[in-house]
Amino acid sequence: MSEITHEIDANFAGRLNILRAGVLGANDGIISIAGVVIGVASATTNIWIIFLSGLAAILAGAFSMAGGEYVSVSTQKDTEEAAVAREQLLLDKDIEAAKKSLYAAYLQNGECETSAQLLVNKAFLKKST
């Protein structure tokens, strides 16, 4: 029962993060577009100019957010690939150092020495298939 509750809580937390990002993004967009439209409306009474400035602000905001998200995801992907390559190099170069590093990480995360050693041994077992 506790495992199900933990899974539900993790899913709920993920959904809350998505909701938070959506609300903050929408709020940012609404305020930015309203600022452009109000600024243009204070300079002219031509409805088409006001409409076109609002449309331009919507498109610029959409492209800006899409570009920012693309750069963010690409950077995260590149960072993770570099971390994996670094770990693979460590494994290829010095497997004992890799084992010590993993052992230290388990200890730092609260595992006892025996448990950490068992987990390290399990992680470095060669698959027999």
Q: Tell me the number of strands.
A: 0
User: Strand pairing plus helix content: what structural class?
Assistant: mainly alpha
Biggest sheet, in brief?
none
Q: Output the radius of gyration.
A: 26 Å
Helical residue percent?
A: over 70%
Low-confidence stretches: none
Multimeric state: single chain
Number of helices: 4
Hey, roughly how much beta strand do the residues contain?
A: under 5%
Order of helices and strands: HHHH
Cα-to-Cα separation, first versus last residue: 35 Å
Overall residue-averaged pLDDT value:
85
Based on Cα principal axes, name the global outline.
Answer: elongated
Polypeptide structure, described:
The structure is a single chain. With 129 residues, this protein is mainly alpha-helical. Helix content is 88%, strand content 0%. It is built from four helices and no strands. Helix 3 crosses helix 4. The longest helix has 47 residues. The mean pLDDT is 85.
Task: Write a brief structural summary.
This protein is an all-alpha fold. Helix content is 88%, strand content 0%.
Features:
mainly alpha
Question: What secondary-structure arrangement, pairings included, does this model have?
Answer:
Blueprint: H1 2-43, H2 47-93, H3 95-108, H4 113-123
Helix pairs in contact: 1-2, 2-3, 3-4
